[in-house]
Amino acid sequence: MKKELFELYSDYLLSSFGKTTATQLSSLVDGAYSHDQITRLLSRNHFDSKTLWQYVKPVVRQVEKNDGVLIVDDTIQEKQYSDENDLIAWHFDHVFGRSVKGINLLNLVYHVGDISLPVAYQLIEKPIQYTDLKAKKVKRKAEKTKKNQE
Question: N or C terminus: which one in the chain shows less Cβ crowding within 10 Å?
């Protein structure tokens, strides 16, 4: 993976307020990278929690202290108008006190002093479909839940 292009793409995403595209990024850097190079970067690499940890681990090691803490954040990005699938499903949202349709993301952040660094994440998928006989509806559930993690 081209680290320079990856860093540029990450900065672009963090600094953008609206829709982001490879073509728009290419235009912003006056064609220094083509939209095809950006698309290839994204399609040929597997970005997962392990990749994030490998990328951020040296920084964590530089700033870690005894009073550092790990923060677990369970957030739901609501997608009320999207079709349901393994990723976009109904999740209980404690903010609203009810289930909402969206993407459930678990984040693990290392925090020390005024520094917070993401160190891991997991998108919660619900690939198992079943029929709720009481509600007479097809519902989804995850292979593992927060209660039965092993």
Answer: C
Profile the chain (150 residues) by mean pLDDT over runs of 10 residues.
85 91 94 94 90 94 96 93 95 90 95 96 93 89 74
| H or E element, residue 128 | strand 128-132
Query: Is the entire prediction scored with pTM above 0.90?
Result: no
The secondary element (H helix, E strand) that includes residue 107 is: strand 98-112
Q: Residue ranges of the alpha helices (H) in 3-137?
A: 3-15, 22-28, 35-44, 49-63
Cβ-contact 112, 64 below 8 angstroms: yes
82 Cβ partners below 8 Å, 6+ apart? 88, 101
